[in-house]
Write the structure tokens for this entry.
Amino acid sequence: MFLRRKKPRPVTKKEIPDGLWVKCDSCGEILYRKELARKLWVCERCGYHFKIDSRKYISILTDEFKEIFAELTPTNPLDFQDYSEKLEKDRKKTSLNDAAISGEAKIGKHRIILCAMEFFFRGGSMGSVVGEKVKLSINHAIKRKVPLVIVCASGGARMQEGILSLMQMAKTSATLNLLSDAKIPYISILTNPTTAGVMASYASLGDLVIAEPGALIGFAGPRVIMDTVKEELPPGFQTAEFLLEHGLLDAVVPRVELKDKLISILDFFKS
Amino acid sequence: MPRTFLPFEKPIAELERKIEDLRTLQEEGVADLRDEIVSLENKLKLIQDNIYGNLTPWQRIQLARHPKRPYFMDYISYITDEFFEIHGDGCFRDDPAIVCGFGKINGRSVVLMGHEKGRSTKEKIKRNFGMAHPEGYRKALKVAKLASKFGKPIVSLVDTPGAYPGIGAEERGQAQAIAINIKEFAYLPTPIIVIITGEGGSGGALGIGVGDTVVIMQYAYYSVISPEGCASILWRDASKAPEAAEALKITAQDLLELGVVDKIIPEPSGGAHRKPAEAASILKEFIINEIDKLSVVPAENLIKARIEKFQKMGTIKSSP
């Protein structure tokens, strides 16, 4: 009998570990760290896109970046057990107040508003602050009359802020109507992973929705689905390529091409 | 009629049985037990008030999930003079987990939509226990757009454990369907009244849960995640759901305090399932009042206020 080799699904929450050499989460190849960084954290052997933090996305995508709305800080509205401590821990780890950075950015010759989600802060989950930053970023894009780009990375709504997190889906999606009315382009970039409450709100609502190769994208988590349907999930289920094939994405773009593609998209909207 | 009692309702069940027995004896003329019956009935009321006045969040969730709780089709038959069901998303399939249609409520034309869990086993399976697929949300949007085109108010009754987490649901864009509904419902130029009648299960609820007025019935709940799901993530133990139910602040009163719902619709003592007709009549009165109130507001004002309503939600501090 053949041993069925399951393709490892990269769901690690860890950041790329320190050290000179890094092992690829997908193919196991040992990669030289400096070289890997030069390749924008994409495995040269198998093309696996490492999870990278919001600041790396900002440096990959933009030529100038000035942070806005940095002062927004989460509270513990439900007095949820251990939540304040967890926030403090992730604040130290990422030196961010919550799971998103917004800013006025320049990419090529285009001015945009960029909001990058931070997966290493509470799994990129959306509580009140993330929802508010997205809302304010939309409003700012309307005010400045410049396109909005959101780099998504999130496991969904933040459980510890309960129903208020769910309401951020309504807050962000409702506000996007104003951006549509103003005819300002919104490009949503889905990275690994973009699921649940974030995918079921602004992440899905871009004028263009594009994803990085291999990114896990969906509504429910694979484990929940497996427990519900009690059967094996199809190969490649919920990957960017799977969504593309099912007509749910506009494009899949490798990280190395992301900036150039984004510039040509912005050119298209502008001219 | 056989009744279903929840574990914490045991003292009520026992007392009700005793009263029933005494009544039978009284009717048979065995003895004059009228005084005893009255005294037991008073005791029953006290016990009921005590139990239902001090429900834990977990007990409330059990009431919200009560197998005899009125569902969408029950409310339709109590509330509407007539109902014409509209099927299908116009593309893939008719999802029986969400029912939509035209209804008349005391002469008013209203578009109604809601999750339907199904009563019998066969019907539950057909309706997938009220867990909708993307085509269910797309059907709801189709009908909502129809309503707004002709300026008819929309009444949405939310009662779902959640949107269905299945393979087909993902293949057909569950997340995308919900996202689009949230955005579109926020911008429809017609009054929208949302009532959480049972379970407000996360995104599956919000997919037909954006409106001008959002209210919740007394023993319903609304949550970002099921208490079982929360407990298994936090403590790797789904049996700790009662603790999670407490922590998540999902009861009607909590939701009112958090500014997520506008109002709590009272239910008959012991829950809507004890007196469905009475529960429906309270709901009907609320719906009529709300429709009459919102119908005179210009559509652009409705939309502006609706967006602002959701834009205000959440708690944030500002620190340097």
